[in-house]
Amino acid sequence: MTLIWKKYNSNTVNGVTLKKLANTIVTGKTPSTKIKENYGNDIPFVKIPDMHNKVFIDETSQSLTLQGANSQKNKYIPANSILVSCIGTPGLVSITDKNIQTNQQINSLILDEKYLYCTFIELRSNKDMIGNLGSGGTTIKNLNKTDFSNIVINIPNTDKLLEKFNSVARPIFNNIHENMIQTQKLKKIKATLLSEYF
Fold first, then answer.
1. pTM above 0.90, yes or no
2. Which long-range contacts (CB under 8 A, 24 or more apart) does 34-41 make?
3. Quick one: pLDDT at residue 22?
């Protein structure tokens, strides 16, 4: 996918910051853990471990109840948004496939869908750069929202070129997503069979 992108970004507009590209950038937040009713099975709650080696977020280790999620309604992230880890392990990049919320270690880009794939690839390709932007102590890196928002990426300089790239990228990402869904179904079937016979 990266090689295909390189073919299309030979004609790009340099100097497009994430804050100019995105409709909104949302820094996540953790609902009070002292209120047990905040946590349940309604809204996936994404944390950094959920993002490792994931193009799409297919499952999370924790979910919120509607009560917990609605206690911070401005932290909802819709499907087809991009999540980027910015604290602890900066530079992990994933795509949402449903309505979710995240903790404070993740910044989310809510953007026009036409920019989804090129932005994802640009950020993934610059993982090390994003990691190096994180400042702080020797054990925990912290990329603040302002510096994150000012990251510059390249995008095609015309809608025609952008759609031409998307016509190639969209089926590939759809296949990745579908394979992920099928893999999760098979894992659940395997777990069910093992629990029944062993």
1. no
2. 35/68, 37/65, 37/67, 37/68, 38/64, 38/65, 38/67, 38/68, 38/71, 39/63, 39/64, 39/65, 39/68, 40/64, 40/65, 40/68, 41/65
3. 97
CA gap 166, 142 in Å, rounded = 32
Per-residue pLDDT tens over the stretch 87-127: 999 999 999 999 999 999 999 999 999 999 999 999 999 98
The residues facing 156 across adjacent strands are 12
Sign of the dihedral through C-alpha 117, 104, 47, 127: positive
Check whether 142 has a pLDDT greater than 80.
Answer: yes
Q: Side chain identity at 188, as an amino acid letter?
A: K
Cβ atoms of residues 158 and 13 within 8 Å: no
What pLDDT, in 10s, does the model give residues 25-66? Answer: 999 999 999 999 999 999 999 999 999 999 999 899 999 999
